[in-house]
Amino acid sequence: MAAVDVVIEEKKEDAVDRQRVCPFLLRVFLSTTGYHHKITDYNKGNVPTNELQIYTWKDATLNELALLVKEVNPEARRKGTKFSFALIYPDMRAPIYRMREIGSTTSGQKGPDDLKTLAQARSSIGDYMDIAITPPDNWSSGPRKGGYSQYNNRSRPY
């Protein structure tokens, strides 16, 4: 009798077949001040000027997005640079946008949010992403947990 090898593949629950599923456009706005843009920068059809357009999938992690930002932003490549991520989404009850922080990563260090996906963050196609970049030298004088605290703990209305 011939031996049979069994191969078990572990699939993530939100994994996307990137060969078959078309990516979507994620409009990312970078801030190198260490703070997120003001939410008023997104109202009345306006957006901040420092835009990066990324084609990605719902299973993209925050660490993957940070790597893509580092490819085009040489200042963000330094070890210890912190990336704080926030979703900007339209309020369904009013003609304004809302901001919700979804996590942070640090270059050269493993963190709890590194493997968080856009799907886990409840991102929807059409949302913007605001990334506050804090260089390692500015940590002591930089933001506490990524930006404007008045927008923390606001969840998307569903």
Automatic annotation (TrEMBL):
<dbReference type="Pfam" id="PF06487">
    <property type="entry name" value="SAP18"/>
</dbReference>
<feature type="region of interest" description="Disordered">
    <location>
        <begin position="134"/>
        <end position="158"/>
    </location>
</feature>
<feature type="compositionally biased region" description="Polar residues">
    <location>
        <begin position="149"/>
        <end position="158"/>
    </location>
</feature>
<keyword id="KW-0805">Transcription regulation</keyword>
<dbReference type="GO" id="GO:0005634">
    <property type="term" value="C:nucleus"/>
</dbReference>
<keyword id="KW-0678">Repressor</keyword>
<dbReference type="InterPro" id="IPR010516">
    <property type="entry name" value="SAP18"/>
</dbReference>
<keyword id="KW-0804">Transcription</keyword>
<dbReference type="InterPro" id="IPR042534">
    <property type="entry name" value="SAP18_sf"/>
</dbReference>
<comment type="similarity">
    <text>Belongs to the SAP18 family.</text>
</comment>
<protein>
    <recommendedName>
        <fullName>18 kDa Sin3-associated polypeptide</fullName>
    </recommendedName>
</protein>
<dbReference type="GO" id="GO:0003714">
    <property type="term" value="F:transcription corepressor activity"/>
</dbReference>
